[in-house]
């Protein structure tokens, strides 16, 4: 593979570790699968919103779907508790190998940006809290195009803003649907097989598949 | 509410009972949440496919996502077993109250059609097996427009084919994202609050919400 010049990173689960948020939601719901159900429902409704009509902020869809998850379990969810649980999203730690891997990638001369389904303000808080700000040239949120990933406009927005061709660009993500969208926009892809994540057999096999970011960075820098 | 003239029914879970398929998949996977995970992943990838690019048959996405579900559990899924598990979809029973409720609705003069994300051939097998054929004027599948619900083209396809205005039409479904899409296409909506189904707080409250079809039909016929 000819190496890319621009690396676009997905954020939640890809760079940031949602374990603490997962425990908090599962404990509050009294159900070990609550976080997983919520996160899938959140993604489902983000896609449903972008398929069917106007844009709505990811945080708002997050709140609506958390309410659904609790309702489904027959549990009350008070506004303060919802805000407290969802507040975790701004204060997530990076996965342990991420800072050193990003540093190495940056030092080897790649242009590095993010692209998240989350709102830009929350995303900037995330990067600041996780102390990852210095490694990125630009932070991008889909709110600029008012469509969620994997809509092609979201990837095209980054490609056009950055002035790189799809073939010069690699999306790195832990979500198979994000990989599928980037492939369809013509980008190279790197799949991080984080715990519980599997590839979609309907997509092309990604250019790189590793379990952690440092293994992927090793391939990009040697 | 002014009563609608055309009733459009979603099929899987709304009219047909997936319990037997659920048990079969959970037993084969050795995991009580396997069916639920699969069905959510199936809907997620159907939406991701329609957001990001070309159309793929629902049955094919069903097979790919069942493979993902098993892989995630560290279980092998042989082709024959996948075919056998997915074959349940053509031979589902109706929910117990459905035949009598549809009969009553038909007798009161409503025009009744279906609209499913499934392929038309499979859908016709489903209706024949469940002995529900006689109650419907037309069976519609989204494969005609090559987009999955809740894309507006899917609802518009039925409205244009039938020649009814959105305000004369009610979609009946057990899925909140389907209700959201129909609302955005301007239709009236009836939500069947089947077991485990909850409304999306981001949508408008539906015109009718009942736990079973006969309760909804009662409101439409009195």
From TrEMBL, chains A, B:
Check the record and name the InterPro entries matching this protein: 2-HAD, HAD-like_sf, HAD-SF_hydro_IA, HAD_2, HAD_sf, PGP-like_dom2, S-2-haloacid_dehalogenase
**Which GO molecular-function terms appear in the entry?**
hydrolase activity, acting on acid halide bonds, in C-halide compounds
Q: Which UniProt keywords apply?
A: Hydrolase
Gene3D superfamilies registered for this protein in UniProt: HAD superfamily/HAD-like, Putative phosphatase, domain 2
Q: Would the keyword Transcription be found if you checked this record's keyword annotation?
A: no
Task: Tell whether Hydrolase is among the UniProt keywords.
Answer: yes
Family matches, as Pfam families: HAD_2 (PF13419)
Question: What residue intervals traverse the membrane?
Answer: none
- Indicate the family of this protein: Belongs to the HAD-like hydrolase superfamily. S-2-haloalkanoic acid dehalogenase family.
Q: What is this protein called?
A: 2-haloacid dehalogenase
């Amino acid at each position: 593979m000819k190496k890319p010049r621009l690396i676009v990173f997905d954020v939640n689960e890809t760079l940031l570790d949602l374990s603490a948020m997962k425990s908090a939601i599962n404990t509050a719901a009294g159900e070990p699968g609550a976080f997983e159900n919520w996160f899938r429902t959140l993604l489902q409704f983000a896609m449903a919103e972008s398929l069917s009509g106007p844009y709505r902020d990811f945080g708002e869809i997050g709140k609506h779907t958390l309410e659904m998850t609790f309702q489904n379990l027959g549990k009350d969810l008070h506004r303060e508790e919802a805000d407290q649980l969802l507040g975790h999203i701004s204060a997530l730690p990076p996965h342990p190998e991420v800072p050193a891997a990003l540093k190495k990638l940056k030092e080897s001369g790649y242009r590095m940006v993010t692209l998240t389904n989350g709102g830009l303000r929350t995303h900037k808080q995330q990067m600041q809290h996780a102390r990852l700000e210095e490694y990125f040239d630009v932070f991008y949120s889909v709110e600029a195009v008012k469509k969620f990933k994997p809509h092609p406009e979201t990837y095209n927005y980054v490609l056009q803003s950055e002035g790189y061709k799809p073939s010069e660009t690699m999306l790195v993500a832990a979500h198979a649907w994000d990989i599928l969208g980037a492939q369809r926009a013509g980008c190279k892809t790197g799949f991080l097989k984080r715990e519980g994540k599997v590839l979609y057999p309907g997509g092309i096999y990604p250019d790189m598949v590793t379990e952690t970011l440092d293994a992927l960075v090793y391939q990009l820098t040697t």
